[in-house]
TrEMBL record:
It comes from the Bacteria. This is Uma2 family endonuclease. PANTHER family: SLL0198 PROTEIN-RELATED, SLL0888 PROTEIN. Pfam families: Uma2. One of its GO terms (molecular function) is endonuclease activity. Residues 10-188 form the Putative restriction endonuclease domain. Transmembrane segments: none annotated. The keyword Nucleotidyltransferase does not apply. It comes from Floridaenema evergladense BLCC-F167. Keywords: Endonuclease, Hydrolase, Nuclease.
């Protein structure tokens, strides 16, 4: 990720436009450019988006799957500065999306925790997805956080239990266990071999 020297408040971040198509996360008040995904990265997100959408429809839930929606993760305790991330994929309620849509001029950023967030680990960005975002999503109250690591062929599912994440790792033909989608029939191999 490329960090800029531009410092913003969360409210300024919501309306920031540098005239490019670049995507940014807000980390301790600093804009951090999010790199474009690789083809494999994009294919994983496409697969999961379709899979989650079918599960939502099958279960008759009032949820939706979104890409390129920011997630406000609050004030970072060590710095006192605000953070907002742009997950690869998130599952949210229709009510959450209606709140985002109400402010047509601001960036699409949720101010309440997503039900599920997926991040595909980018080359050279392992620490961010495994440590920083895990901590931030936990503090924000994200119920389930998936880390897809194509380099080591592993899917990690972190489930929020009593304020802490319980970790389960899946490889090969193991079926993913999800508290958000309890009837999901999806193997780690299917995700990792797209």
């Amino acid at each position: 990720m490329i960090q800029t020297s531009k410092t913003l408040t969360f409210e300024e971040y919501l309306t920031y436009d540098d005239g490019t198509d670049n995507r940014y996360e807000l980390v301790d008040g600093e804009l951090v450019m999010v790199p474009l995904p690789t083809a494999d990265h994009s294919d994983v997100i496409d697969l999961l988006s379709k899979t989650f959408s079918l599960e939502i429809e099958k279960l008759g839930l009032n949820w939706i799957v979104k890409r390129d929606v920011g997630t406000y993760v609050g004030i970072h305790p060590e710095t006192g500065k605000e953070r907002s991330r742009t997950p690869d994929l998130c599952v949210i309620t229709q009510e959450q999306w209606n709140e985002v849509k109400a402010n047509k001029k601001a960036a699409a950023v949720l101010k309440t925790p997503s039900l599920l967030i997926v991040e595909v680990v980018s080359p050279g960005d392992k620490r961010t997805d495994y440590k920083e975002k895990e901590s931030e999503y936990k503090k924000a109250g994200v119920r389930e956080y998936w880390i897809i690591d194509l380099r080591v062929s592993k899917v990690t599912v972190l489930s929020l239990v009593n304020g802490d994440y319980q970790k389960a790792e899946f490889t090969n033909n193991q079926l993913i266990i999800s508290g958000i989608f309890p009837e999901l029939s999806l193997s780690a191999q299917k995700i990792l071999s797209v």
